[in-house]
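Field reference: sequence -> structure
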Amino acid sequence: MYLTPLLLLENIGYTSSIYTYQEEQYPDWTGDIGVGLRASAIAANRFILQAEDLPSYSFYLENKNLRSWSNRFSSTVYSYVGPFNLKAGYAQDNLSQRPQLEFSRPYRYTSSEWSGATDIGRSSRLFLTAYFTLTKLAYEEDSYLGSYNLAKTLNHRRNTFGLRLNQRIFTSTIIYLNYSMSDYVFESLSSRDTRTQTMGLGVEFPEIGILQGSFQIGYSRFSPKNPRFKPTDSLSGRGDIHITLMERLRLFGSYSLGTSFSYSAIDLFYSNNMFGGGVEVYLTRFLKGGASYQDGRMKYRSFLDLELQRSDRIRSQRYYLAIPFFGNTSLGFSYNTYRLTSDALGLDYTRDYWGGFLSYGF
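Structure field:
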């Protein structure tokens, strides 16, 4: 058995405001700190077992009511039978989250997920992957922002089944065509039940090399089961690409295209399209610096008529320095700015953050 310690250090510093979508400032000193363990083992020369657990504590100096514990747990089993690669997993999270996207204040939820995947023709350059995920999301029942019940509007199960046709090229790079179908079944509001179908084309680059990462771009169709709601189509996908030049310079870019259900109204959903990029430079063997920029838009529409209700824009910048810490980890200090503008809400809000972090990889 192999044991690997895990350490989490994030958001350790000072923020000009702990809330978004609010022009009044609420500054505080914060920090997310966690210590966990990853265990790996090989059984009967056929099974690879891996499990990890990472409890963490979110600290607020002034806003003591927001202090809370979180925990992430996951386990995975890998094996093979003849031409089949097999993978099965279970994950459970109990998390306190900081403001993001449409969530303007910290919120809490639990999730559990069973998953499985089979590669058919694992030794061939062309092979097929069949997979499924069974996910349950449950938000806290306390009133959110004084008038919203996240548990009532967002608690749901998401059952996903998919097929992926893979083609290996250049030894370790994989090009694939993916199809998936998901059913959203809401716990309290069956009127929100929806089926989605997604077709996408993607590329996975090797973990070692000049070009690393992956991306997928595709097309999704949302088909609500409520006869009053109209179906809608959108682009979907996610990408994160890194390019290393002359060993000292790294360029990276990312994007995320998705659609989510809003907690503010039963018929409301929003598209979340984020694009970003940055650069990282090794100034010396023991010091690197970096800068990044991200720009995203959230467009809210109603399933009733698909008309645009409002558009919000989120822009963030990050500048940081980091030094090696232990093994393949690094300690760093960053300065971050976050700007949110909303046409319907009449907001133009900027928040700053200074603080430290720990990352894996130097």
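Note: The chain has one helix and 18 strands.
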